[in-house]
Write a structure and sequence with these properties.
By secondary structure, the chain is an alpha/beta fold. It is built from 9 helices and 11 strands.
């Protein structure tokens, strides 16, 4: 058990934490949504995503592989309701505990701000980190309603840490965000239509990324026809098969962290929770 965590549930097929295998993955949940600006409820995401994980078989028929990877579920972080910056610091400290154990983090959110703390720990560990960001939105505003720590500012904070960004599935942004991207050299964008029409080019680009990679999946990247229970649903999203292709392509790289955030539902068996659990399940199947 890590400091600042408690155990409400465990992800299916996770191992006990008594005898840890180094370089495996460790799950922590972040039940926090205090900066949510539209549809609240992602604080319950870790619970419903874990519950949904028990609907899958150990054999993954999409990839013709058993889930044989060793991974652990350390429970949920003790967040500070209403204080995003303090919560991000707790997440950072918790991820540093995992890194000290040579365990790579998987974060289940909770709002997207959870990525700030996790990525801060990893940018301190690695000289150069690439963040693959699957999202309907850029999340690059400097401040949102006066707050620097927010679900809408997460990738601006990450960019300030020195990480390279690859944003996939984008279909909503402010003009200021687009101007900021044009002013930088290390933000690559693949919009939703690029994914639908030019997946081969995206696969080629991802295959050629060198060095450690962090993957951040905001569930609103999925089309809301399939995953409606998110903080900010936006039409024109990705299909599950496209996300599977992206995850499979990245599974051959040096993945040092992963998050799936913004599942906003209090209902067990919710479609969005099932898809979020499937993304984590696929990732764990592919990375051994």
């Amino acid at each position: 058990m890590l400091l600042n965590t408690y155990e409400p549930w465990k992800f299916a097929f996770s191992q006990e934490t008594e005898n840890l295998i180094e370089n495996s993955f460790g799950i922590i949940g972040v039940p926090f949504d205090s900066t949510t600006s539209y549809h609240s409820g992602s604080r319950l995401g870790p619970i419903v995503v874990r519950e949904a994980s028990f609907g899958f078989e150990k054999y993954n028929t999409v990839f013709n592989k058993d889930l044989t990877a060793s991974f652990y579920d350390f429970g949920d972080v003790n967040v500070v309701p209403g204080n995003c910056e303090a919560t991000c610091k707790i997440i950072e400290d918790t991820v540093n505990e995992l890194l000290d154990l040579n365990i790579r983090p998987i974060i289940i959110g909770g709002e997207h701000s959870a990525s700030i703390g996790a990525i801060k720990a990893l940018t301190d560990k690695y000289e150069k980190l690439t963040v693959i960001h699957l999202d309907a939105h850029r999340d690059l505003v400097f401040e949102f309603v006066g707050e620097k720590y927010s679900h809408a500012t997460v990738m601006r904070r990450v960019h300030e840490m020195g990480a390279d960004l690859v944003q996939i599935g984008i279909r909503s942004a402010s003009q200021d965000e687009d101007e900021f991207v044009k002013s930088t050299y290390n933000i690559q964008t693949f919009k939703n239509r690029d994914v639908h029409k030019h997946m081969d080019a995206i696969e080629y680009y991802l295959t050629n990324i060198e060095g450690p990679i962090y993957i951040s999946v905001d569930m609103d990247v999925v089309d809301p026809a399939f995953a409606p229970s998110v903080g900010n649903p936006t039409p024109g999203g990705l299909f599950m098969s496209e996300i599977e292709t992206i995850i499979e392509t990245l599974s051959h790289k040096d993945i040092v962290g992963f998050d799936v955030v913004e599942t906003a539902s209090d209902r067990l068996g919710d479609n969005t929770a099932v898809i979020a659990a499937k993304i984590i399940y696929d990732f764990l199947t592919l990375t051994e």
